[in-house]
Write a structure and sequence with these properties.
Elements (H helix, E strand, L loop, with lengths): L3 E10 L2 E11 L4 E5 L6 H9 L6 E6 L2 E2 L10 E4 L11 H11 L4 H14 L15 H13 L5 E5 L7 H18 L2 E6 L2 H7 L2 E6 L2 E6 L1 H6 L4 H6 L6 E11 L2 E6 L8 E4 L11 E6 L5 E2 L8 E10 L3 E7 L6 E7 L9 E5 L6 E6 L2 E6 L4
Helix pairs in contact: 2-3, 2-4, 3-4
Length: 373
């Protein structure tokens, strides 16, 4: 069993405050993804966990023991880097054996561990090649194999797939998922790609500017984001946001008027509002592209927007519409194919029971309603 607990972790580089009061727990065998935009502190946090970077304050507890002062080599963790970090003059076998040889592992044990890892990763026919003779995916498998042979308490991945092309990323994603299922060893996976996090992780930690915005399962973050940042970061394409004002309500509902829209279609009644905002409150309405649909042209309750761009992908696609006043776009995902073209005006059905409401206060967004799946 291997567990990890980060308690009130802080990191400063001089006057720059990089991580703020980080509290994260990783259960035995759990796959946890750290996601967020560039510069949010994900890689710094991973380096602190590994021991490559010291924490300014707070506790790093591994298997119930505080390890802040334990060296990286003695923490029993294995890290897989974005750049592979392979020795170019060594063969695949030598790269995988290097760490074991440094701790004087018996030769027979090294051969056994490398043989098992190479077979698992389909590298057994490549052990005598050098990194320059391998593809990007093969190099990444070697880096993972080097981590596996150490039998670590936890695997740490720092954006391991970002250097690969799209097709290879999908393949390697599946291989890492299968590897986690076979080994049942905990993994902490840093990525800026929320699709990777959604498809791979048991739980996701969303970071912004060095702070944890929300932690939960992929579907918890998708269905019940705690704020507008999480709502916009989780989901692809991102959630649509429209400015609105509260103009009525009652009996657990809230009536909104969409800013810039005209007629009856500008009024939206959202049901089951747990925290009913008062009349005149400025609200941001959020709705995901996959929850919108293109309605019949004569639909009375539809909103009408001009088409700016159409992406036809065959089995599905996306229509990008321009919001009133040019204040952003609204993206609609559709199944199959569409005859819509740039310049057309399309009617969009807004599903009130799938809308999220966010209230703006001093520049920060707080949840006013959550969609219940």
């Amino acid at each position: 069993m291997s567990t990890l607990s980060l308690a009130h972790l802080e990191k400063r580089f001089g006057d720059t405050h990089v991580l703020h009061d980080i509290n994260v727990d990783v259960a035995d065998g759990e796959f946890v993804a750290l996601v967020g935009p560039s510069g949010c502190g994900k890689s710094t946090l991973l380096r602190i966990i590994s021991g490559l970077e010291p924490a300014t304050s707070g506790d790093i507890v591994l298997d119930g023991k505080r390890v802040n002062d334990v060296s990286a080599a003695d923490r029993g963790l294995s890290m897989v880097f974005q750049s592979y970090a392979l020795y170019p003059h060594m063969t695949v076998y030598q790269n995988m054996a290097f760490g074991l040889e440094n701790v004087r592992t018996p030769k027979a044990e090294i051969e056994s561990k490398i043989g098992a890892a190479a077979k698992m990763l389909q590298l057994d026919q490549l052990l005598q090649r050098r990194p320059t003779q391998l593809s990007g995916g093969q190099r990444q498998r070697v880096a993972i194999g080097r981590a596996i042979v150490r039998n670590p308490k936890l695997f740490l991945f720092d954006e391991p797939l970002s250097n690969l092309d799209a097709e290879l990323r999908v393949q390697m994603r599946a291989e890492i998922i299968a590897l986690h299922q076979r080994l049942s060893t905990g993994m902490i996976y840093v990525t800026h790609d929320q699709v990777e996090a959604m498809t791979m992780a048991d739980r996701i930690v969303v970071l912004r500017a060095g702070r944890v915005e929300q932690t939960g399962t992929p579907l918890e973050l998708y269905n019940r984001p705690q704020n507008r940042f999480v709502a916009g970061f989780i989901g692809s394409p991102r959630m649509n946001f429209v400015d609105a004002t509260v103009t009525g309500g009652g009996d657990g509902n809230v009536v909104l008027t969409l800013n810039g829209f005209e007629g009856d279609s500008a009024r939206v009644t959202v049901p089951r509002v747990a925290e009913a905002p008062g009349f005149g409150t400025a609200i941001t309405l959020g709705v995901r592209p996959e929850h919108l649909r293109i309605a019949d042209a004569g639909a009375a309750d539809a909103i009408r927007l001009p088409v700016a761009q159409v992406e036809q992908l065959g089995g599905h696609g996306f229509v990008h519409c321009t919001l009133p006043g040019g204040k952003g776009t609204m993206v609609v995902q559709f199944d199959g194919q569409t005859a819509a073209r740039p310049g057309d005006v399309v009617a969009l059905a807004l599903p009130a029971d799938r809308c999220h409401l966010f209230r703006t206060s001093d520049g920060e967004t707080t949840i006013a309603r959550q969609y219940e799946a």
